[in-house]
Amino acid sequence: MTPPKDTAFAYQEVYHYLVGLIEAASGMGEQKLPSLRQLALRLGVSVSTTKYAYALLEDEGRIHARARFGYFTRSISSAPVTANSGNLLDHVFASARQPGMLALSSDAPAMLLSLQGPLLTMERELTRQYPRSHAPLYQPLGEPELRAALAERYTRSTHNHWQAEQVYIGADLRSVLELSLGALNLGGSVALVESPCSWAILRQLQAANIRVVEMPFGDDGRFNLPALKALLTREPIRLAVLSSTVNIPQGQLMPAQDKQQICRWLAERAIWLFENDTWGELSFSKSATRYRDFADPHKLLVFSTFDKIIGGEAPYGYVLCRQQAAQFHRLFMQRGFRLSPMRQKAIARLYNSRRIDQHLTMLRALLVKRMQQLQTLLEVHGSDHWQVLAPQGGASFWLKAVRPINMQRVFERLLAERIVIAPGEIFSQQGTWNQHLRLSYSLDWDKNIVHAVQRLALAITEENRVYSP
């Protein structure tokens, strides 16, 4: 067996290998793929790396998982993208992971600075401390040490505290959201989401047969509160999915008084609040408030992942919830996640040693630096094409075209030059935000980013000529 690959982007190599297997199986009907452990042994990588690669492909709809049977291929249409084809999101993701592509669509801040090296070093040290005969067993709810570390991190006071048994850890974000919706019996209900909204959340709600009602942000990152109140009165909403601090992909912060009022309305109507804390630690403001600071603690669920901060070697998702413990236990036990105890222990040690906090300080500073660098390029090379508003956190700009334009066509023009952007409409089930795009600054800055911005400006110019009456 080849030695383990501890490189930051080992999962990309696994991803491309799996794409080759899937393409080779096209036209042959559904085919079973190697198990996580088989593939890890075959390629000389960790099981977490193979899990992360499989999760990416599952999010793209190329494969699907069957409980206790593994992963299987799923046919994907090769038809070109059109306004009505519905496969734009799949095309964006598949294109971004092709070799040689410059993915301006990325949303992986750990690409700039990861903790994967320290994580793997810690895991090796723990493995030496626990001989195989004394190694901890798989814990279906998550490793107790990591659950305790997360409970401690989210505890703010004696009135706002969490316990380890209220924390649940799963293979990825998709899995923990699926189980949470099931545990709280929210399938088939109505959900309020902020818009633009994470495509991953939209897909998971759709998979649970949940009708989505989108509430758009203004340019200032705020809701129209009277319109929101009317919507809550009019629609039978049972859950609201909202970003804890910075609104992603828009990148703005909502004032504390707005969040407090929204939480008051949700509590009056007994609406579950699902707080998306995936980007909560990446706000550039130290004083950013979170919805959970004002929410009804008995109608609150917080969910997040580790990979945005640590990197692809930590793909696990987790939730914190004080209610329906028996249902959470039952569903997580049935799913039977077999997550590496040592990897989870290593993540817990990064939290307990405050290594995570040191890393976050450096990562936020680097994100600010790259944000300012890209903002300068956007202002120099295309200020007459788009509106640039500096984000207050996260890893991307939310750009709006100055003139009406078909952003899908801009995407296609750039794709021909091996540049990938994320058109705004993939962040809405209704296909709104078609004048927008997400542009990342968590990029490989050794590449020619100046040229990419210039080509983006040119593609918009050319499309404007076509689009203009």
TrEMBL record:
User: Which InterPro entries would you find in this protein's record?
Assistant: Aminotransferase_I/II_large, HTH_trans_reg/aminotransferase, PyrdxlP-dep_Trfase, PyrdxlP-dep_Trfase_major, PyrdxlP-dep_Trfase_small, Tscrpt_reg_HTH_GntR, WH-like_DNA-bd_sf, WH_DNA-bd_sf
UniProt keyword list: DNA-binding, Pyridoxal phosphate, Transcription, Transcription regulation
Question: In this protein, which residues make up the domain named HTH gntR-type?
Answer: 8-76
Recall the GO molecular function terms of this protein's record: DNA binding; DNA-binding transcription factor activity; pyridoxal phosphate binding
Q: Does the keyword Glycoprotein apply?
A: no
Nucleotidyltransferase recorded as keyword: no
> What is the superkingdom listed in this entry's lineage?
Bacteria
Which protein family is named in the record?
In the C-terminal section; belongs to the class-I pyridoxal-phosphate-dependent aminotransferase family.
Would you tell me the protein name for this molecule? GntR family transcriptional regulator
